[in-house]
Amino acid sequence: MRRAILGLMAILLLVSAAHAAAPSVRVGIPSIVVTLLPLPVAQERGFFQEEGLTVQPVLMAAALNIKALLSGDVSYATTVGAAVSAAVRGIDVRVVMVFVDRPLFDLVGVPEVSSIADLRGRVVGISSRGGLMDHATRRMLQQSGVDPAGVTLVTLGPQSNVFTALEARRITAGLLIPPYNFLAYRRGLKNLGFAGSFVSIPTTGLVTMRERLERAPDQVRRMVRALARARAFAREQKAAVLPILKRFLKLEDDAFLSEIYDYHQKAETPDGRISPALAAETIREAREAEGLTRETPVGQVFDFSYLEPRR
């Protein structure tokens, strides 16, 4: 009996030592935003640890995520859009999980404007040219029967600048992300439309190099499994997740946190996948943006085989 107990203790010590010696898995993140919620949930609820992983998020500019993957400075990235753009240029990167498949912004206007159609001839603020917000704004205008050429688009930089310009009535409308959109509604500004109702595009998820899929497939599966558990927990346990979200976003307003949590669910993918049609459209738009004509197969960009099979 004593020998059996000693043997069990030795096994437990070996397992503990293996976990303690596990190298840190670095994950590049572009900013602290709600779409990255699965990461802090997986950390704080112990899902990474239960998979034998020590995960370290590394904050870096979105443009650097893929460069850091290529150099080996991070093992994973979360910028799906940047990954797709890199893949169509021939970089061997793969998207293995998609957290959200539509942008989380609202087009917010001054109270005198009742609809997007009323923006003809008006001034609309965007954060930058050529980015997702610029693209989404133009798509929302077009689908509402407004020629973007008939609207004055001004670049304002950070979201705080767009919010301030709206509040001061220097612009008529602008795209705002949480919590700025909810703050705007408290100040009497108007929701003209949810960008995700007009544009479907995967923006955040789990990205890695194809070489890692071949060299460490078990690690990839464990990462995906921990994040899938975190996503399921976050969907079902709002009360338990709000304190995690508060710490992650460093936001103290409980009403804002509740609104952001509910808003985030509008954009979540059910199981980490997107449809083949959306994947193909995302690749096509990336090729057009890069000025490339060579076709890129969906399988060279998206690989959802590491996710649990659908039931």
Characterise the protein shown here.
The protein has 311 residues and is an alpha/beta fold. It has helices at 2-20, 38-44, 47-50, 62-71, 80-88, 132-143, 159-167, 180-186, 210-215, 217-236, 238-249, 254-264, 276-290; strands at 24-29, 54-59, 76-79, 93-100, 106-109, 123-126, 152-155, 173-176, 190-194, 204-209. The strands form 2 sheets. It has a 5-stranded mixed β-sheet, sandwiched between helices. Helix 2 (38-44) packs across helix 10 and helix 5 crosses helix 13 (276-290). The longest helix is centred in the C-terminal third of the chain and has 20 residues, at 217-236. The radius of gyration is 22 Å and the shape is globular.
What is the average of the pLDDT values?
91
Going by helix content, strand content and strand pairing, the class is alpha/beta
- Termini, distance in Å? 44 Å
- Strand order across the biggest sheet? 2-1-3-10-4
Helix percentage: 40-55%
The string of secondary-structure elements, in order, is HEHHEHEHEEEHEHEHEEHHHHH
Q: What descriptive keywords fit this protein?
A:
10 strands, five-stranded mixed β-sheet, 311 residues, 16% strand, globular, single chain, alpha/beta
Question: Gist?
Answer:
The protein has helices spanning 2-20, 38-44, 47-50, 62-71, 80-88, 132-143, 159-167, 180-186, 210-215, 217-236, 238-249, 254-264, 276-290; strands at 24-29, 54-59, 76-79, 93-100, 106-109, 123-126, 152-155, 173-176, 190-194, 204-209.
